[in-house]
Write a structure and sequence with these properties.
- By secondary structure, this protein is of the alpha+beta class.
- The chain has 4 helices and 4 strands.
- It has one domain (6-96): 2-Layer Sandwich (Alpha-Beta Plaits), CATH 3.30.70.
- Strands 2-3-1-4 form a 4-stranded antiparallel sheet.
- The relative contact order is 0.31.
Amino acid sequence: MSAKNITVIATFQAKPGKETELKNALIGLVAPTRKEAGCINYDLHALPEDPAKFLFHENWTSKAHLDAHLQNTHITTLLPRVGELCVAMPDITIWEKIA
């Protein structure tokens, strides 16, 4: 059975006063992630009416590639800062393409 493409939706909510710092930290993930094996796209979005909300829309060629991404230094370096920058852990859902 071949690996299936997966989509990840991850949303972040910055703590008051931490919007710019979180935005910059998330932007810092984009370039290195886009170079990773298996990354189809890794796009960061901001909610125009709420500058504290951010969303990643990611597509990966397999769950294995996503798992490898989560072990990379640029990701593991951000994880300890989530409590400082965000009101809660990001909401992350993984979707499997079916058609």
